[in-house]
Amino acid sequence: APRGGWRCSADSDQPGSAALGPSWRWKSGSVNERALQYKIGERIHGFTVNQVTAVPELFLTAVKLSHENTGAKYLHVAREDSNNLFSVQFRTTPLDSTGVPHILEHTVLCGSQKYPCRDPFFKMLNRSLSTFMNAFTASDYTLYPFSTQNPKDFQNLLSVYLDAAFFPCLRQLDFWQEGWRLEHENPTDPQTPLVFKGIVFNEMKGAFTDNERLFSQHLQNKLLPDHTYAVISGGDPLSIPDLTWEQLKQFHATHYHPSNARFFTYGNFPLEQHLKQIHEEALTKFHRIEPNTAIPVQQLWDNPREHHVKCGSDSFATDPTKQTIISVSFLLTDITDTFETFTLNLLSSLLVGGPNSPFYKALLEASLGTDFSPDVGCMCASSWGCVCTHHKSILLKKKNLSQRKGFEEERIELLLHKIESRMKASSLSSFGTSSCWNHEGDPVELLKIADKVTQFRQHLKENPTFLQEKVKQYFKDNPHRLTLSMSPDESYYEKQAKLEAEKLKQKVNTLSEEEKKQTYEKGLELIALQSKPQDTSCLPALKVSDIAPTIPFTELEMAFAADEIPVQYCAQPTNGMVYFRAVSSLNTLPEELKPYVPLFCSVITKMGCGALGYREQAQQIELKTGGMSVSPHIIPDDSHLDAYEQGVLFSSLCLDRNLPDMMHLWSEIFNNILLSLQTILCINQLNGRLEQEEHFRVLVKMTAQELSNGIPDSGHLYASVRASKTLTPAGELQEMFIGMDQVKLMKRIAEMSDIKPVLRKLPRIKKYLLNSDNMRCSVNATPQQMSQASKEIENFLKGITRSKKERKPVRPHVIEPVPVGRERLNCSQITRKLITEPTFKPCQMKTHFLLPFPVNYVGECIRTVPYTAPDYASLQILARLMTAKFLHREIREKGGAYGGGATLSHSGIFTFYSYRDPNSISTFSTFEKAAEWAQSGEFAQQDIDEAKLAVFAAVDAPIAPSDKGMNHFLNGISDEMKQRHREQLFAVSSDHLIDVANKYLAGGKSTHGLAVLGPENPHIAKDPSWVKR
Question: Which residues form the Peptidase M16C associated domain (predicted)?
Answer without folding.
Answer: 486-749
